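In the previous chapter we treated chains in isolation. Here, by contrast, the input contains two separate entities that must be folded as one system, with a combined length of 906 residues.
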Amino acid sequence: MCKDNAQTTQLDTWKEVEAFAKRTLPPHVVEFIEEAQREPHPESKLIKVLQLVQEHYGYLGKTQMDAVAQLMQIPTAKVSGVATFYHYFRLVPRGKYMIRICLGTACYVKGAERVVEKLKEELGIHFGETTKDGLFSLEGTRCLGCCGLAPVVEINGEVFGQVTPDKIPAILEHYSEKTD
Amino acid sequence: MSKVKEKYDLILKKAEEYRKSLNYTEKIRIRVGSATCEHAAGSTTVYEEFRKHIESSGRKDILLEKTGCTGRCSCEPIVGIFVPGKFPIKYQLVNREKVHKIFIEHVLNGKIVKEYVLDQAPDSCKYHVLMCDGSGCGGALESGIRFIFEMKLEEVGFTQQDVLLTSIGCLGFCTNLEKSLSSAQILVRPDNVIYKIRTAKDVEEIIENHFRNGKIVERLMVKDRPISQRFYNLYGDVAFFNKQTRVALRNAGVINPENIYDYIHYKGFLALSEVLEKNDPDWVIEQIKISKLRGRGGGGFPTGIKWESAKKQKSEEKYIICNADEGDPGAFMDRSMLESDPFSIVEGMIIGGFAIGATKGYFYIRAEYPLAVERIENAIRECRKHNILGNNILGSEFNFDLEVRLGAGAFVCGEETALIHSIEGERGQPRVRPPYPTESGLWSKPTVINNVETFANVPPIIVYGAEWFREIGTDRSGGTKVFALAGKINKTGLVEVPMGTTLRKIVYDIGGGVAGGKRAKAIQTGGPAGGCIPEKYFDTSVDFDTLSKLGSIMGSGGMIVLDEDDCMVDVAKFYMEFCQDESCGKCTPCREGTKRILEILKRITEGKSTEADLDKLERLAKLVKRTSLCGLGKAAPNPVLSTLTYFKEEYIAHVKDKKCPAKRCRSLIHYEIDQGKCVGCTMCAKNCPVNCISGSRKEPHVIDTLRCIKCGRCFEVCRFKAVMKI
């Protein structure tokens, strides 16, 4: 996927840099950037581009961010500035299943804290970490807007409502079995 | 006929033809709720299951449709079964098994499955009369019409099984009436007829002709179709809904959010066609000003004035932005509107764009709402297809287009200058105002930013009249407000009520009171920027100004009900953790202040604080409030300050007595086993994760408090209530 030592490759001309950047990013992202360049304010699409890159790789690697900076002609400092500012972006690879537990108020008063503890205990990881087998990553998230179903846990886009600590093992098992 | 009118009629005709082709009047319709919350509750499986059932039944007269979410969250998935000429029936908490039963018994054999009906609404009556109690028109109660009705029904021997009377929020007629106390509007279900009643004779006539002989009394019938008719006809039997007044949410759960023709049928884009036909931006702004619509995002700035100041700017390019970066934990009304009625927000934005002279609009939606993004993008595509977006909209001179931009999870981007930076592709940090965005906003051009709900209110203001809208609300603020009711409440969900409704009405009449029969302690309004309002102020009428007087804010409308088990210091700490984490770090008071406030709060909840901390906390909170750059920092101390004002005794209990009255703060409690109650079932010992409970079978057990990690597991599993939290 991403090789950080690629940075050391000698790239002298813009053509080489451009070709390298295009090789690094998935074709649909390159296409999106090229289209953006033809419209006014192309630099404003940076967040969208980073979102596309993350959707593809699951995180933002340094090589990819450099390639985005080159192709969009935006300073690398700014690209990484944006990537580190927003919660949505991850700079390290994540597990196959992203477990996001809602930390909104409604979930909090309905006992999300205990669900968090149970998740951490079951998985043996903290927020922002990934299990050793690469299956699960854990993340606390802003309000998912399903307050009526609090507490809420989302796993790869699938939402589980009224989760209690007791339900956690079954939910996790459902996913770990999927891969077998 | 003008060109715009011609074009609009053409689209309307198309919509009606489409609906005709579906043959609604002869078909049974099954409508399954479809929104993020509904999906989470399992509505996609339910939809699939109904599809399979219809397929295998071989029936061609059953239609399966999607609709948005009505906002009765804790009962989802909700499924409506509409049989022509019968009451619309809604089922709650539908799952795979229930689908089977509902389909066989109700859809195929016409027998309602009573035990699954939403909120156990009455269904056995022949006629259901909904009596408008809106403050605008006097109402059935005030005018005495309800009393006359009850008397006359009794005289002729009708019982509740024949005719059931229910008072409802507001049908939405208000301005069409001479305001008098001698008339009332009623909606008769399932015929979906509205009568205007003035005298006892009118009542007699309706009872005799309509209720006895099934003949509609044309003389008293109201021809207008008010805004809420459709909603009440569908949901008028549900107590949670019939006390609400639906304006912004008028189509939520009524239309199919993915179908533009459905929206057009319910007066969709009528407002836009009127605006474009008049071709006068000043008229639009005037209407918005008359309506007293105030920004629903929290600030409450008058929308008309904002639009006017943007219009005055001389610039080739202007922008209009819809702020759909709903980041407040506990607020989900914007998501619901985006998902359930996307076209109305698009329409509101086009009208706003026309009023200020913008050519381009942006939807700024948070990436955490994928379905909302999908529905808005679909709405934009459909609008472009029908010449409602693009060049020469509906044949007029007006060109306007919309684009969706996704937020990337930063709470501060709800602040308008930060939001602009985010659209520009920068870090979402706020800047000093003035200049306000209306002068210099996106790419330094005049820009108007409004909240989702604000835009949703614009089309009804144009269609039903600015005066009508103003009448619904209070002196200083027109219309309704949608609240997201959650926390320790029986009926969680979206509640839309006129401005000026009391908190008590929202919590008890609509929300059904506190869950588990406990006492409400406070309501937290406005999210992390708001405050906690104690129970003794529940009779306050809710408005931008009254809430800020109480030290809270309206915010975007989150309402979290807290009961006696919630520790106010802990709640304050929760919000401060949120604000501290979300502080963008640009200005020092917010960046450093929130961190120090949080440290003090942590000390208090851990029992490590001194009395001097309380004084320090208050001074620091006030300093941060006064000196922060943007709304986030200015409002971040609100939860602390309001709890310090109203719940000082709880802080003192934590600091002085090292006790948490609500028994929530872990460091300040411990668990003990009541030796008299313990029967020695060993349940607690088995479940203790650190094995700190000792005792043999049938003997009272003991917790080693030194090793106990206070996880509370023993407390939960004990069936004899022998474990005590002290």
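The mean pLDDT of chain A is 87. Chain A touches chain B through 44 residues (CB under 8 Å). Compare these points with the single-chain example from earlier in the chapter.
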